[in-house]
Amino acid sequence: MNQDFSPDRAACGFARDIPLVLDAGEAAALRAGARVGISAAHESAHLHVAGAAPYVDDVPEAAGTLHAALAPSPVASGVLRSIDRAALLAMPGVVAVLTAADIPGANDCGPVIHDDPILADGTLRYRGQPVALIVATARDLARLAAARIGPCLDIEPATPVLTAREAYARGDALLPPASLIRESAPGALTAALAAAPHRLGGQFSLGGQEQFYLEGQIAYALPTENQGLRVLCSTQHPSEMQHLIAHALGWRSHQVLVECRRMGGGFGGKESQSGLFACCASIAAARLGRPVKLRLDRDDDFIMTGRRHPFEYDYDVAFDDDGRITGIEATLIANGGHSADLSGAVMTRALCHLDNAYYLPEVAINGFVARTNTQSNTAFRGFGGPQGALLIEIVMDRIARHLGRDPLAVRRANFYGVASRNVTPYRQTIEDNVVAALVDELVAQADYQGRVAAVAAFNRSNSVLKKGIALTPVKFGISFNVPHLNQAGALVHVYADGSVLVNHGGTEMGQGLNTKVAQVVADALGIGFAAVRCSATDTSKIANTSATAASTGADLNGMAARDAAMTIRNRLADFAAARHGGEAADVQFANDVVRVSGIALAFATLVRQAYEARVQLWSDGFYATPKVHWNPKGLHGRPFYYFAYGAAASEVIIDTLTGEVSLLRADILHDAGRSLNPAIDIGQIEGGFIQSMGWLTTEELVWHATDGRLLTHAPSTYKIPTANDCPAALHTRLFDNPNTEPTIHRSKAVGEPPMLLAFSVLLAIRDAIAATGGPGADPDLRAPATPEAVLDAIASLDAIRP
Amino acid sequence: MQQPISFYFDNRIVRVADQPITATVLAWLRGAVRRTGTKEGCAEGDCGACTVIVAELADEAGDAGGIRAGNLVLRPINACIRFLPTLHGKALLTIEDLAGLTDRALHPVQQAMVDCHGSQCGFCTPGFVMSLFATYLRHQAAQTTPDRAAIAHDLAGNLCRCTGYRPILDAAARMFALPPATLDTAPIEAALRAVAAETGAGLSYAAAGQAGPGARFYAPREVDALAAWYAERPEATLLAGATDIGLWVNKRFRDVGDLLYLGDVAALRCIEREGDVLRIGAGATLEAAWAALIGLEPALGEMALRFAGPPVRHAGTMGGNVANGSPIGDAAPVLMAMDARLVLQHGAQSREVPLDAFYLDYMRNDLAKGEFLRAILVPLPDPDTRMRAYKISKRFDCDISALSCGLAVTLEGETISRVRLAFGGMAATVRRARHAEAALHEAVWGEAAVRAAMAALDEDFTPLSDLRASRGYRRLVARNLLWRFWLETRSAAPLPAASVRVRTFAMAGAV
Predict the structure, then answer these.
(1) In degrees, to the nearest 5, what angle opens at C-alpha A533 toward C-alphas A529 and A537?
(2) A338/A474 same-domain check
(3) pLDDT value at residue A571
């Protein structure tokens, strides 16, 4: 991308005075009237760079606003007998100290299962769990009082369970264990394992990941008339916030309005877990009759909210001389934390992604969500999919090393077929498989084979540093696994001056959803970007929305917005034909001009005429994804409308003395269908790749082994990638592949699938470590591959060291 | 005498009298004047979302290391851990000021970020823009353009979770190709001279309108005044860059009492050669101090880059890092390997102690009550000394060391006449590995002696296991770093850094 940056300043973007920088092809398409497939800058980009894009904490505070803080449990497990509030109430500025008993409705913010208390209900479940809500005249004073909670608590501590393996051994699960089994005949898997010419078993350990959205959790609740609340919240799921707040207050949903203009990052961490903070701010505001803001300190955000589930794996795989898998059994143990949250759906997605791009003839995958005394783990970009798919990539690598074959050859031998070997373990037939062609194209683009040889040559002549290279594919299912969530609504207003306001149920967290939806509307109406404005997501505009999650934001809301815009366009076309002659079907809308019956008039002129003729110029729109269905008991059906594909080749270098790693080059080829906005899609692909690389390399979570404290509780101790971790040689391209399903302009979802691309980095590290051993060396490398993990893996080979 | 905090902001001098002495610049911006473009991401100086520029008159600035524009020195810093009274006599530039520097819709830094799709969620973006603005000013003044590696180093203190950085790095290259915008420093300089003229011997500030005596902030301009004030009030907290004290306040709610700020004492910010010694004033910024040390020993370049990110290096001081005495401070192992000495002062009295005798125990040092670190004295290296400094952490940039070390041998022929092996992260304090040193002393600089020293390290250290690394890893890597040192500095066929260090290899752009 950076090499072929040949800008052409074309027409304006969403900021009226800032021309778009486009390549020549897109510039020509834009001039010809295209509004999708154009790399328009993010609709807020000009505001971002000026510090003029307001987030919740930037909205001017209403007079009388109070500030809240949450007091944390000092133990990971135990019984909370009582809280003595007197000392805290005597502290400067403290207005109220609220506990579970003060919650008028249900003390619960569990999104699926009602097992998640807002404030501790007597049982202490993890260290950092909110036990009391402190409200004060200033944020600092509320935080100070919250930090002084310890002596006010009468606690009987208990011994916590802190690891998933320990909970698994005790059979302590948050949800009933699930098994995804598909056999050609009963007992076929057992037979395949027993009869296999080759068999490998083992364990693998994969750490969790903190979302580290730059904007922390925040909610600001303002009382409105007649027992109502308006809540500004940084959330991916305004409708659920509305529902949870009403539930906690014992109200009905129509009393609560939740609004979110934008988030400073979400990544899944604000799908369900913004609920705790939305509820707390609302409980305090409703009780005190004053606006209450709850903005978490970063450390509190770390110790109170969950993250990507760490996984532990046991597996047993059978394969033939070509490395082709004949049967596999795997058990996935997720650390769910103290409550179910979204863990059930996360595990389902993990089970449904263990196959990644590979056909598994006989397969049994067991899922166990362990209950531990830690933060409740939740959604994070990929939602279990990466945790499922990584295992099979480790297995592929092990098979290749066991057989002494090229890992890519083993992967190719196992790829799903197009006409046969094309049914997933959950019995969905794959109809859009392009993985083999995509990988072939990347192999050529990246000169993969030539570089494999160059890496080997380097390793022969270097003793301290070793290189590794790997190429891994991606297949990722798109749709919510729960079919009813696959729906969306939108509202498009065309004002009498021809300007357009777009609203929809999705939320903007940086992924460019509003930009894409506005492009779709501009395309439908044939108008310029500057004529379209996006507004905040608002539960009083679109009801019963789904979370902006599962990569579906543009698929669902883009279609709903197009539906609304096309309704208006059709009305305008009917009106234009009636007024000016000709057929409605022949009316053309492009470049702010409407052509009807041989005359051309400005879009705004037609709109004014239509308004005066009493034509309705606003419309709602709706979309429900077709074809998807799911049997949650048997774990089969068609959970995914389609699949997104990709592949990445990464080359790394490791230091065998220290375990330090550096990514030298990555080549990415990714399938975004027919892209709505190539620049935004490449941004998602590269952003996801680097974020996932962080998960698999430097981002290590550590809890105190006995007291359950999260020791990596801030960016000082939890290390996400920096600019220096992005390789100078990062080559990203989009794979030309219009969606076989009629999605919005044949595009594909792009938020989560790129999380699988960075598997190539971990596998390349594994390859480099293997180079320190003899033929067939098969290192035992856990993830994240920190310097220490790398040295441990080298030691596992008994390599020669000084 | 009661004085307000006076500084240049929003094109004029503002005077603040009502803020607590530990009010942060960020809290004041977002709360008191509702300039919300500057964001809080972590409140501990690790994410850079709150990056702003602080400017001061070059003749007051005392040290190098900042960015020169006109007669100003500008520095990117973290507003979240900077106390407002430290702005007295300086200028504060925030993201909102950039648009005013150009006739166009956006400043070239901002325009390039839009053109290259450098923002996604946008929350980190103002901080990135301000760091890039600092880069822009530096290279505009020097009429240079940075390469990609230099840009990435400039951005090491800014975290972005969305983009993966590639478009931001592209923007940083592109901003120099757009029509330029210049910062007119004249009005700022004039305003700062006016404040300086009325400030006299220094700022003495306490928040107005508080009940009781209230904590006091004192920022003298002369060393003697500082020494006398501190000797009289040894319970006061000595404040330099606040890159640690800011966290005491933000995260631990600690009452720091009266603050004695040494950042306005020009004499303490000096770095100068005195005979065969480099004298680093205790108030010199990390940016300036590391530059001076690299001037003595180019092999320290990587350690300097990895010591925090630019906003911390521009605020924090090497004196603070040494006096703070954390076992994982990265300056001390390097300085110890260079046989640095410390000048300590109490009232009018001063004394010198070797750095390797300064640390007594975990977070305990040889400073008496009311005594402060005045300067670090670094002997100029012997030409026959071979030195390296290594840092090991999970992330290359801006991480806390699992272990770090400064390693030096001086050779007479092939025989080691002097050896210093100083380690951080291996014990309760930074300290020398005496057993390993003994194994090398007067030995031939060869594989046998190195292996003996590696084995002896086990007698020197029994490190802890913690979130950064296990005891076993620390032990193994400490040994391996000695080996790396030998590979790099042996007389026969020494290996270049790119053969033993992954980042050096990566930055050489070999793929």
Answers:
(1) 135
(2) yes
(3) 98
Instruction: For domain B103-177, give the CATH superfamily.
Output: [2Fe-2S]-binding domain (1.10.150.120)
Assess whether A432 and A549 both reside in one domain. no
Q: Which of residues 165-184 of B touch A (CB under 8 A)?
A: 165-170, 174
Is pLDDT at B212 greater than 80 in this prediction?
A: no
Cβ contact (<8 Å) for B161 and A213? yes
Q: End of a domain among A304, A320, A348? A: A304
A13: amino acid identity, one letter: G
Q: What's chain B's length in residues? A: 511
Name the residue in chain B with its Cα closest to that of A667: B511
Q: Please answer whether residues A668 and A756 qualify as being in contact, where contact means their C-beta atoms are separated by less than 8 angstroms.
A: no
Beta carbons of A215 and B170 less than 8 Å apart: no
- B-chain residue closest to A300, CA distance: B251
pLDDT confidence bin for A3, thresholds 50/70/90? very low
Confidence of residue A17 (pLDDT cuts 50, 70, 90): confident
Which helix (H) or strand (E) element contains residue B150? Answer: helix B148-154
Answer yes or no: do A727 and B506 touch at CB < 8 A.
yes
Q: A107 and A150: one domain?
A: yes
Which residue type sits at A512?
A: G
pLDDT score for A5: 46
Q: Are residues A404 and A437 in the same domain?
A: yes
Please state the rounded mean pLDDT for residues A228-239: 98
Catalytically active residues of A, by annotation: 752
Q: If you average pLDDT over residues A310-325, what whole number do you get?
A: 98
- Chain B CB within 8 Å of residue A51 CB: yes
The pLDDT of residue B28: 98
Spans of all domains in chain B: 5-96+186-261, 103-177, 270-505
- Total count of domains within chain A: 4
* B270/A contact by beta carbon, under 8 A: no
Going by DSSP bridges, is the β-strand pair A629-631/A325-337 parallel, antiparallel, or unpaired?
unpaired
Q: How many beta-carbon pairs under 8 angstroms link A with B?
A: 309
Residue B61: pLDDT band (50, 70, 90) is: low
Rounded to an integer, what distance in angstroms lies between the CA atom of residue B500 and that of residue A655? Answer: 7
CATH superfamily of B5-96+186-261: Beta-grasp domain (3.10.20.30)
Tokens of A617: 């110029």
Same domain (yes/no): A636, A767: yes
Range of the domain at A750: 311-481+632-796
In a domain, A150, yes or no: yes
Fold of the domain built from segment(s) B270-505: Enolase-like; domain 1 (3.30.390)
- Same-domain pairing of A642 and A493: no
The domain that contains A217 carries what CATH number?
A: 3.30.365.10
Same domain, A743 and A685: yes
pLDDT computed for residue A2 by the predictor: 39
Q: Is residue A286 part of a domain?
A: yes
Strands A363-371 and A178-182, how do they pair? antiparallel
In a domain, A201, yes or no: no
Average pLDDT over residues B415-419: 98
DSSP H helical segments within B20-90, as ranges? 25-27, 58-61
Asked if residues A379 and A346 have their Cβ atoms less than 8 Å apart, the reply is yes
How much is the pLDDT for A751?
97
- Read off the pLDDT of each residue in B333-350 and give the average, rounded to a whole number: 98
- A723 neighbourhood in chain B, CB within 8 Å: 151-152, 155-156, 158, 160, 165, 168-169, 397
Q: What does residue A436 show for φ and ψ, rounded to 5 degrees?
A: -65, -45
Average pLDDT over residues A288-301: 98
User: Which residue from B104, B127, B126, B124 is spatially nearest to B178, judged by alpha carbons?
Assistant: B104
ipTM score: 0.97
- CB-CB under 8 Å, A42 with B166: no
